[in-house]
């Protein structure tokens, strides 16, 4: 009998709570770089997962190629040693190489991701402008003021006979503009292109 009374009490409480509504909008930080803004290589498997969740995707394989040319100490974010590997590698199967470096600064995720395609340049649909960086045309899209995405900058550059895509995401405002950060990453990688 006691169980029946307890069960009824729980049901009454649950049904009363179910009718209560709480105002407001849910707030959650989306994982960095969820979908690639770059063109897709039609020769890859279209059923492949585009980009797994940042917090659960493992590092897969060894750091090599373009991903081995960038170090944590090349980035403006504090705390990591040069030999610390990227947060993720080989996470985007639509490119020959992909890697990202992400960290939290004051509970805000910031980071840089690279994607490289052999033998073919990478394009973005629209651009904000172009820079000449050491003889390479770097096209960029500044997304720092767009409401539907984290403050970010998307850059593409012809690289090592193929194409390199760079994304910088940083809403902390502590390390300069996102496109300036992206330009510095492009400069580092262009300096190391043939090394």
TrEMBL record:
Tell whether Signal is among the UniProt keywords: yes
**Residues of the signal sequence?**
1-20
Write the record's keywords in alphabetical order, separated by commas.
Signal
Q: Where is this region: Disordered?
A: 25-59
Mind telling me what this protein is named?
A: DUF3558 domain-containing protein
């Amino acid at each position: 009998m006691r169980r029946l009374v307890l069960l009824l009490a729980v049901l009454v409480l649950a049904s009363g709570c179910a009718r209560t509504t709480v105002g407001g909008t849910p707030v959650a930080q989306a994982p960095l770089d969820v979908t690639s803004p770059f063109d897709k290589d039609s020769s890859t498997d279209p059923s492949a997962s585009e980009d797994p969740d940042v917090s659960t995707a493992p590092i897969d394989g060894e750091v090599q190629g373009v991903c081995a040319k960038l170090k944590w100490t090349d980035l403006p974010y504090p705390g990591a040693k040069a030999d610390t590997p990227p947060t993720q590698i080989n996470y985007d199967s639509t490119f020959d190489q992909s890697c990202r470096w992400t960290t939290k600064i004051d509970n805000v995720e910031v980071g840089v991701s690279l994607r490289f395609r052999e033998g073919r340049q990478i394009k973005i649909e629209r651009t904000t402008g172009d820079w000449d960086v050491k003889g390479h045309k770097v096209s960029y899209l500044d997304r720092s003021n767009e409401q539907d995405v984290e403050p970010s900058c998307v850059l593409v550059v012809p690289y090592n006979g193929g194409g390199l895509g760079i994304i910088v995401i940083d809403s902390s405002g502590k390390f300069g503009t996102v496109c300036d950060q992206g330009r510095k990453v492009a400069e580092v990688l262009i300096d190391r292109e043939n090394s």
